[in-house]
């Protein structure tokens, strides 16, 4: 029987961060009797470029790569401000939490510049990243998972079954932590089992919390395998506990029998309040349902909306296409200053929300259609005519070549691209070169402090 190599403590230096925000380090074992050395690639949560770390690697000489937590910091990177020793498994929500904020902004600008330079765009166009004055507690939505052992938190980084109980609160508002602890105490009192992904047993699956940044309204959603009537007394106790929070305007119990971790909805029960909450962004009111996509950092999103409006330089004759419009976050502010606007989105629920949000805000010149991007653009060109401005805010993987070529053939004078992924952003922008478009402005905005993500807004103009 082949014996496993023993664990070893190694000293390593972190050279870079990968796309998940994990520190990357290599360790070279010297030549063996067979005349071959061995390289071990390590991915280390909460590690920063320049850190010299002590790590314990199980089966160190018998593997090529490993993801693990460091034991301690031997020599800290200049950017490090804490976390010199870590205890237990880590979660991926804030991989840069120990990097000083000015270094985070520098790292994100350089990340974008590198992608632009590799694609032969002028990297000097990338402006300094717009940071936040107070880059904490900015998230308006958080999703936690119940474990069969009683934890309520996030999956450990690199583990699809282990849940780390949420104890720290640097990204979400303080009220989320208090509600989490109330729900966790309620679960333990009534001994309602958390869901086990392996055995598919247990009842409670996820806890969703979202808050209106301007209104303060809070939504609390329990996702479970069973309907709430099975737990009548427990449900009544949960209602009483939530009444202690004046901010809670929506309490729901959603039956979810999905095999995957997706927050599906077989049935929706409103236990208290409504099935939505209200928030305000850039002077417009939006209804937020449990599955509504809404900007996770409203403070920075508002700055981004103002930037897009300024770059659009709208007049009463402006005609706008808002591609991947979602629930109308950009559509409504732009439509108010233009002749008319058409929003395109493949998700019908989002389009219905966009129409409702337009009605709620008295916007009558914004029209929305539920189509995939390519067919939606073709339909608009045929039935609506030529637009002056196209705005697109695609998913993380970008729009793709077929859609970008379709955009290029429209010949619209001005294109504004909002991206949450600089890699897919640059890949998409390359397609517009052959249609005579040139990048004129690039403004990064830090929507996600303490993470590896960064939002980028790009202005392209047709030069031929």
UniProtKB/TrEMBL annotation:
This is 23S rRNA (Uracil-5-)-methyltransferase RumA. GO terms for biological process: rRNA base methylation. NCBIfam families: rumA (TIGR00479). S-adenosyl-L-methionine binds at residues 295, 324, 345, 393. It holds the Pfam family tRNA_U5-meth_tr. CDD domains: AdoMet_MTases. InterPro entries: MeTrfase_TrmA_AS, MeTrfase_TrmA_CS, SAM-dependent_MTases_sf, U5_MeTrfase_fam. Belongs to the class I-like SAM-binding methyltransferase superfamily. RNA M5U methyltransferase family. The active site is at 420 (nucleophile), 420. Keywords: Methyltransferase, S-adenosyl-L-methionine, Transferase. GO terms for molecular function: rRNA (uridine-C5-)-methyltransferase activity.
């Amino acid at each position: 029987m082949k014996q496993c190599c023993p664990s070893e403590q190694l000293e390593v230096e972190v050279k870079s961060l990968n796309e998940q925000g994990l520190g990357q380090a290599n360790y070279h074992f010297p030549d063996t009797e067979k005349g071959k050395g061995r390289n071990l690639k390590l991915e280390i949560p909460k590690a920063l470029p320049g850190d010299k770390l002590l790590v314990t690697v199980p089966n160190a000489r018998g593997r090529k790569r490993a993801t693990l937590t460091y034991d301690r910091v031997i020599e800290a990177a200049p950017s490090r401000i804490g976390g010199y020793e870590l205890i237990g498994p880590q979660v991926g929500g804030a991989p840069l939490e120990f990097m000083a904020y000015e270094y985070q902004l520098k790292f994100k600008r350089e990340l974008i510049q590198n992608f632009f330079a590799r694609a032969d765009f002028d990297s000097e166009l990338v402006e300094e990243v717009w940071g936040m004055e107070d880059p904490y507690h900015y998230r308006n939505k958080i999703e936690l998972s119940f474990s069969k052992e009683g934890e309520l938190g996030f999956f450990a980084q690199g583990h699809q079954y282990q849940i780390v109980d949420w104890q720290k609160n640097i990204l979400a508002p303080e009220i989320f932590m208090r509600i989490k602890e109330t729900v966790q105490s309620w679960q333990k009192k009534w001994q309602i089992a958390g869901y086990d992904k392996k055995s598919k047993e247990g009842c409670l699956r996820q806890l969703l919390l979202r808050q209106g940044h301007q209104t303060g309204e809070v939504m609390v959603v329990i996702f479970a395998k069973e309907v709430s009537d099975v737990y009548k007394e427990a449900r009544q106790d949960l209602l009483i506990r939530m009444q202690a929070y004046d901010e809670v305007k929506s309490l729901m119990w959603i039956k979810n029998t999905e095999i995957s971790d997706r927050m599906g909805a077989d049935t929706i029960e409103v236990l208290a309040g409504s099935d939505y909450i209200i928030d305000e962004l850039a002077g417009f009111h939006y209804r937020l349902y449990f599955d509504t996509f809404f900007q996770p950092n409203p403070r920075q999103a508002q700055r981004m909306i103002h930037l897009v409006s300024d770059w659009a330089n709208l007049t009463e004759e402006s005609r706008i296409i808002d591609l991947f419009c979602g629930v109308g976050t950009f559509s409504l502010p732009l439509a108010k200053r233009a002749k008319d606007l058409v929003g395109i989105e493949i998700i019908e629920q989002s389009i219905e929300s966009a129409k409702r949000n337009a009605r709620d805000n008295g916007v009558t010149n914004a029209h929305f259609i539920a189509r995939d991007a390519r067919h939606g653009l073709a339909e608009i060109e045929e039935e609506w005519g030529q637009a002056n401005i196209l705005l697109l805010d695609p998913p993380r993987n970008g729009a793709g070549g077929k859609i970008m070529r379709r955009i290029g053939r429209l010949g619209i004078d001005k294109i504004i691209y909002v991206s949450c992924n600089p890699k897919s952003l640059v890949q998409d922008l390359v397609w517009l070169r052959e249609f005579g478009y040139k990048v004129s402005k690039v403004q990064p905005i830090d929507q996600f402090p303490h993470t590896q993500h960064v939002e980028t807004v790009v202005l392209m103009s047709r030069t031929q």
